[in-house]
Amino acid sequence: MADPKVVLDQDDMRRTLVRIAHEIVEKNADADRLAIVGIHRRGAPLAARLKRLVDGLLDADIPLGALDISFYRDDVGTRAAEPEVHATNLDFDVDGRTVVIVDDVLYTGRTVRAAIEALFDYGRPARVQLAVVADRGHRELPIRPDYVGKNLPTSHRERVNVRVEELDGVDEVTISERQEAAV
């Protein structure tokens, strides 16, 4: 198998998040009604970074949350492995807010659907927006991101890997061949 191809390195990731933060601020002038929520796993540290950047641009303290979608997935009963469960943390009122959901890769749209369902269990936001580092296409649901770091046309045989310093020790986005599951 070929080595993964790096499509965003550490500097590219930093610039991408700065650009997305500026776009969030441009679309959401009311800092009092804005919140940023990351999807566990890699969306959560990316959301924390975006929050710091948006806070600096707005001179505000935007609420930050994290969603665990393990039990909202439509494949939870068919997955071979037990889901890895993380804590959902939404210690602010979601009602009436614009909530920016942050994830690493947008693929079929099913993860985002699960995140929206989980979010609505905590209240009724005025708007929900989506920020992703990589959009690889191949949507199965009518979901489109509001903020995209990089569009990556890929085949179903490829995998997009987002690594973040907080969890993986490195910031990068790579494309590799998908590993087939052992039978």
Query: Order of SSEs, N→C?
Result: EHEHEEHEEEHE
Task: Report how far the terminal alpha carbons are from each other.
Answer: 19 Å
Annotation, overall tally of beta strands: 8
Unreliably modeled segments: none
Counting DSSP H or I runs of 4 or more residues, the number of helices is 4
Spatial strand sequence of the major β-sheet? 3-2-4-5-6
Mean pLDDT: 93
What would you report as the Rg, rounded to the nearest angstrom?
16 Å
Helical fraction: 25-40%
Strand content: 25-35%
Looking at the structure, what is the overall shape?
A: globular
SSE-based structural type: alpha/beta
**Main beta-sheet annotation:** 5 strands, parallel
Task: Please write out the topology.
Blueprint lengths: L4 E4 L1 H18 L6 E6 L3 H16 L5 E4 L30 E9 L3 H11 L6 E9 L11 E5 L6 E6 L1 H4 L3 E6 L6
Parallel strand pairs: 2-3, 2-4, 4-5, 5-6
Antiparallel strand pairs: 1-8, 7-8
Helix pairs in contact: 1-2
